[in-house]
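Usage

Read records sequentially. Each one opens with the input sequence:
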Amino acid sequence: MSRLTLVLLALLTCAPVIAEQPIAIAIHGGAGVIARQEMTPDREAQYRASLEAARDAGFAVLERGGTSLDAVTTAVRMLEDDPLFNAGRGAVLTHEGAVELDASIMDGRDLRAGAVAGVRRVKNPIDLARLVMERSPHVFLAGSGAEEFALEQGLTLVPNSYFRTPPRERQLEKAIQEERRKGAPAPGSGTVGAVALDRDGNLAAATSTGGMTNKRHGRVGDSPIIGAGTYASNASCAVSATGHGEFFIRLGVARDICALVEYRRMPLEAAVREVIHGKLAALGGDGGVIALDRDGHIVADFNSNGMFRAWRDATGRKHVAIYRDR
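and closes with the structure output:
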């Protein structure tokens, strides 16, 4: 064997192995989880199947080399179409019995973002939020202005009755009765969301909701507010939140978590714990987040009785859960 061959073999043996960029996705279906005593085995199986289906659809986008934006849009759109969750069809009702929808999306690569609030006829608000980001000079459109833009962009509009379901009607009746009895609105919320990391190392986050049961007409929570319910930056992490939106707005929960990671170099899990179990709990707020960093670390944490959630990464690990222990 020649000296040149030996040198080449030595160089090849010592050559560094370049690790493949990890891909990952996490989704949530809201922190407004059904109480254990009311969760039948059949109903739990339905929730788990829906979470797995949305998670796997988003992950399939990443496996094909698609972007994190496409992955979170795909996953959230599926959850909007599923009447089990409080977004799109099956969203909760306002005091007057209407459905008003909010959504937002953010690209961690360049901090572009889009959001809509108070839309009543847009079948998939997450698609409209993305179009606001990609085809308008704005970040946030609301109400009739958002729906005019949806018409211009050729999105599917449906009657408001499309979103209403009998379970949500019964939920509203119960909430109104509670309000009359206690003299204060009964809490009731839920949201869907997704965070993803693609093969190019780009993060994205998306969130969509119907808001709170029995909410006042025009009320807007944290879900469409960039920095409160949604945030993504390649410099830190991607976050989608769910819970009592007023508290998430006051704390700027999603951005706060990302700032702790970026500026204080905190591990993602520690940053989420400090905000959710520290700051949010101290203020009296309840809920949780899903979060994902550029190394593919996934965190799904909450201070409520549960949170519908699922995640999957390139190592083959899969997870779906509702309560703390399952």
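Summary fields computed downstream for this record:
- Residues 19-321 form a domain with the Glutamine Phosphoribosylpyrophosphate, subunit 1, domain 1 fold (CATH 3.60.20.30).
- Residues 104 and 115 are 4 Å apart (CA to CA).
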